[in-house]
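Record type: ASSEMBLY
Status: queued
Input:
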Amino acid sequence: MRKWTKVWVAAFLLIGIVAGAAAAQEIVVGLNAELTGSIPVVGQSSRNGAQLAVDEINAAGGLEVGGRRYTIRLIVEDNKDDAASAVAATTKLITQNQVIAVIGPNASRNAVPAAQIAENFRTPMISPWSTNPTTTAGKRYVFRAAFIDDFQGEVVAAFARNNLGAQTAAVLFDIASEYNKGIAEVFRRSFEALGGRVVAWETYTTGDRDFSSQLTNIRAANPDVLFLPNYYSEVPLQVQQAQRLGIKATFIGSDSWGFAELLTLGGSALEGSYYTTHYAADIATPKAQAFIAAYEARYGSKPDDVAALTYDSMHMLFHALQKAGRVDREAVRNALASITDFEGVTGTMRFEGTGDPIKSAVVVQIKDGQFRYFDSVAP
Amino acid sequence: MEFWLQQTLNALQLGSIYALIALGYTMVYGILRLINFAHGDIFMVGAFIGLAGAVWLKLPIVPTLLFTMACTALLGVTIERLAYKPLRNAPRVSAVITALGVGIFLEHFVLGTVGAQSRAFPALIAAQRFDLPGGLTISSVQLLIIGVSVLLMLALDWFIRGTLTGMAMRAISWDRSVVPLMGISVDRIISLTFAIGSGLAAAGGVLFGQAYPIIDPYMGILVGWKAFIAAVVGGIGNVRGAMLGGYILGMTEIYVAAVLPSTYRDFVAFTLLLLLLVFRPTGILGRVQAQKV
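Status: finished
Output:
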């Protein structure tokens, strides 16, 4: 009996040593994604983008950090698109799985509370898709790959004023939704600062289908552009009703337009409209093209914003690890904060003292019933 | 002036759809004293049947309307037979709860079979815009909606006031217990009422699909409430009152949104309607109902 016990203990010790040695050659990264709940497409895209980045690095022999090669292991946690589960997932990844950094959550409603946990545990966190300023505000360890809502409002205004030559603009937005309202207000400020005039400022409430009253007001003001920073299920109705009333303004929108459903619901009414977003699938940089080709080959569909931003978040982390030269949370945080020139799929980014990247936005035009890359706007 | 005329056209479009749906509430209430809370969802099912007719059977506008009205009328009769008839002598609250249940059933039946995502309703008439003198603009869709609604309402008004069956309906609404003594089958008249009410809601669904061509399984809830309120304002149980109430609600919503931010729209619109009910509790055309003891 005693002999067998010794053998068992020896065997366990051996396994422990081997496992420990293997672990030393491994960097563990956590992904906190919305795999179930109300926006499962977001979580799925996020996981696809992250897994692609990890597999590419591992296939190339791993990541070299401070002269040693490490394989990357991705641990995915589902936050159920729920703030409490997002907090639990981030806590588990940091304390139990001992990850070097957490990627995600994506939606701001989950990212804001999870960010506080990452900050408390002094662990770097990168949210790919959250655009609400609160996520990173006042935090040392929290970063994001997307630009914030304020910047988008400024970009749309600059594009309307400078590229479209608009003198006057009208805005119709959902006053009951924080996202729509925030972008609309920044747009008005920026457009007027650039010498334009906002001639109509109309609101509706989530769930409305009839916009004829507001659009008749807008028609009376006869604007050059009509800005609709609204969700993809409402924009087609607004555009169709505007055209029925004979509004001839150019329609412009924000990143909430960027879903394939917009085209199937909106049809030809959206032809010739523009919106700003993080990324366009037909963007011309070789890096983006390589990513799109690899993603399509593996998953059989074009990557959306979330997939591209998660892929960029992973590479930002790899870049920071290499720059830091050691696998240490504090060193990685410092390396992330001092990124000056990171070229990602969604554009070139740098950080200047905050967790919000300074990066360009993409203008997409709807042409021949498809999303087409039109222009890039630098901040 | 031109601005307000244009807003009136917008209001006529919205009010026509409210009126068509309000008719179903008011007719069923008039005959059974039942608030059929499933009616908004019958309207939604009508829109989806219309979508099936337009997309799968590739029907043009008039056959789509007739097909949808016929199918939905059948659905309305079936619901009455299965869900409400067994409860005819039960306490009234049981029937109202059953109506709510039927509504939830319809929503989730469509959700389960069609899916949660919104569907685009194809345009059944060519989109055209007519510029009238004085800067007014009217679209072919507006003409269609207002024209079809007014036609249906005139036909219904004639039916109720000018035919023997219509007279039987009015008689049941007046006093249900006496009518069988005249040799009239109350059950048949009730079925017919559900058929007509559901058919009109279905027409409303197809016209709604033309005006606001994105439909989803939950679209009937809010529109149904508003149509119910229109029926109450007009005087529930009164058919002409439901038509009037639909247009009054449409005008209030459109005019308020034209001058005030949208957050005030429902607030102001419904305050006005509540005030109206304070001064006329039975609605504009409703009659005082003597409580039968």
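Annotation: The CA atoms of residues 273 and 279 of chain B lie 10 Å apart.
Annotation: Chain B touches chain A through 33 residues (CB under 8 Å).
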